[in-house]
Automatic annotation (TrEMBL):
Species the sequence originates in: Knoellia subterranea KCTC 19937
Domain ABC transporter: 63-287
Protein name, UniProt field: ABC transporter domain-containing protein
GO molecular function, one term: transmembrane transporter activity
SUPFAM superfamilies membership: P-loop containing nucleoside triphosphate hydrolases
Length: 287
């Protein structure tokens, strides 16, 4: 066993106390010395956090949700998941939907994505009232306009990364060579060029989520919806996925809406929309 200072009978040292002791406990003199050391009369600078100025909103709405209601029926029981939600999201915005468990986040995301039907109200995406589309047209619209990312990735287990990424292009009937070129470029974009022949089980959780994001972008949808995309990842990997979303927004102009429980990740978005009991909490109100 190696001797640490305390093992060797030395008292535990407190660097702040040591620093003050060198000024005979004169705190003012210590602060003045620190200021002088940092080259001015200002307080010493704290390590900079990556704070970004708020991005101006364009006002060009890609999503318009009007008085949206969703009631689930379970036998004779009714569960009101959304009780009249209205919101607008701009083209190129990165928005986080937050709120307590059961507040209606996933329900709202699914309705925006046309994965479920509302009980009332409407959703417009990219100028189309999706509630008015037939199932076949809605399915085509989703394939072209919306990319989906989920907590558990949902990659095809028997397909290698490149083929997995090509799947939305197969549904869109994109010629094979073209979709392969698109997949290859996106795999590079998400930092997985050296994993292109891997099966999902040969990748880490973070890599699988990057793969799912590449796949979601294959048809270059203007909108990406992600439900708890970091929910199955450790915090550092989760943060790197949020950085990837930021890059996708900046490089492709993609509008991104994520559902997340993680407040620190939500703060990285351009805007947070908080739900409580199926309603939007007005900004400035603590739910
Ligand atoms: N398919 C369903 N059938 C019945 N009730 C449902 C269904 N899906 C959701 N609910 C109910 O609707 C409400 C909102 O659920 P939702 O999943 O949208 O919340 P959430 O905010 O995403 O929750 P979490 O953060 O736990 O995922 C909850 O009370 C839930 O129990």
């Amino acid at each position: 066993m190696t001797d640490s200072p305390s093992d060797a009978g030395m008292p535990n040292r407190n660097p702040v106390a040591d620093f003050l002791a060198s000024f005979d406990g004169d705190v003012e003199a210590a602060i003045a010395a620190l200021r002088a050391h940092h080259g001015g009369s200002r307080a010493p600078a704290l390590p900079a956090l990556p704070v970004r100025p708020p991005r101006p909103r364009s006002g060009d709405h890609i999503i318009t949700v009007s008085d949206l209601h969703k009631t689930y029926r379970m036998g004779r029981q009714k569960v009101a998941a959304l009780g009249g939600v209205s919101l607008e999201i701009d083209r190129g915005e990165f928005v986080a939907l937050t709120g307590a468990s059961g507040s209606g986040k996933s329900t709202l995301l699914q309705l925006i994505g046309g994965l479920d039907k509302p009980s009332g109200g409407s959703v417009q995406v990219d100028g189309v009232d999706i509630g008015r589309l037939s199932d076949a047209k809605l399915s085509r619209f989703r394939n072209q306009t919306i990319g989906f990312v989920f907590q558990f990735f949902y990659l095809q287990p028997f397909l290698r990364l490149t083929t997995n990424t090509e799947v939305p292009g197969m549904f869109a009937r994109t010629p094979r060579q073209q979709r392969r070129a698109q997949a290859t470029a996106l795999i590079e974009e998400v930092g997985l060029a050296d994993r292109s022949k891997h099966l999902p089980k040969e990748m880490s959780g973070g890599q699988m989520q990057r793969a799912a994001i590449a796949r979601a972008l294959l048809n270059r949808p203007p909108l990406l919806l992600a439900d708890e995309p970091t929910g199955n990842l450790d915090s550092a990997t989760g943060a790197s996925i949020i950085e990837l979303f930021e890059r996708i927004r900046d490089e492709f102009g993609t509008t991104i809406v994520i559902v997340t429980h993680d407040e620190s990740l939500a703060r990285r978005a351009d805007r947070t929309i908080r739900l409580s009991d199926g309603l939007i909490v007005p900004q400035g109100v603590v739910a």
